[in-house]
Amino acid sequence: RRIFTNGDGRYNAARLLLACVSVSLFAALIIVPTLFSSSDSNNNRSLRLLSVMKSRNEMLRSVTKPSIPNVVTIDHNAAPAKSFDAKPEIVSKPFKRKPKLSPPSDSAMIIFYNLFIPTDPAEAKVAIDVLTEQLGQVATSLKEITNKKPTLQSAILYYNLIGNESTFSPEEINALCRKLDPNLECKLSGFYEHASEAVTLEDIHDFCRQEDTDKSTRVTYIHSKGSYHQTLINMNWRREMTNSVLHPDCQNPPDDRCDVCGSSFYTRFSTIYPGNMWTAKCSYVSKLLSPREGGEYDEKKAESVAKFLKYRLWGQLHSTLLEDRIDYFGLGRYRLEHWIGSHSSIRPCELHRQNVTFEL
């Protein structure tokens, strides 16, 4: 049975066709641009970041012509790769082959210290004040631990000195350590005119991967934060981070509940301890990629950021970052701050005062 007569049918079909065309035009001109306008800024940022990363890598390749093999394993006997970092002040050169570390068996703490002393006399004085304060914190913690565990009576601190080696000699530094506590020994691992934290993180990684290192051993990483940029916030932040990682509960977490301990653990933009001081178990550290500059960790870090930007550009992935910042992505010097939390098996814990503030 026909609903319309022939004339009415043609008329209504024409009206229906016109309505469909109108809706299609409205969707094409109004709705679709509105839906995609919110992602335009993300797409533009993704394109800009990808362009910057590509041009930066091409520039560095043209200058250094590095050759990094596409392998998953790390060859520790191979010659060190050339640096991918364009800023000479944070390029660790050269990476020196160091002897195997053998801390005393009664060590209550094994500490690795990245120490920067500027060449300017006034700035060097500030750095030495920071050094003295942090060594005092080490000595205080050592006394607290040895009082609880009489079998552990000593502490060893390995440090890399960067910048100025004439203002405070290794002999003077070790004398200061012995003065603060006769059982505190400080050993110079290496001197670098220009270096980043990578040299000291590499020492930790190598130590934890030594065949004779007990994988239940915990190692502490600290650095002289604020020795170059002295501000009230940096000073208080450094004190809080140092106190946390040296605390007996960070050195020996109750019930062995975590692999890495620090003053605060973030998951907002990465699994990270802001400020990059921590105490970690060697069984966990040995799982990480080598932090050597220009090595596999750097390569995979850049690859992961590039993949994220491409997926966001294609609309397949949305960002939870507040904004596009290199510290959020873990690029440049911030890549080393992301290193300790870069394995999926991490069991983190944090330790800090209840009402901590960096302003007071």
From TrEMBL:
The residues that cross the membrane are 12-36
Superkingdom is Eukaryota
Q: Keywords assigned by UniProt?
A: Membrane, Transmembrane, Transmembrane helix
What protein is this chain from?
A: Uncharacterized protein
Task: Output the lineage of the source organism.
Answer: Eukaryota, Sar, Stramenopiles, Ochrophyta, Bacillariophyta
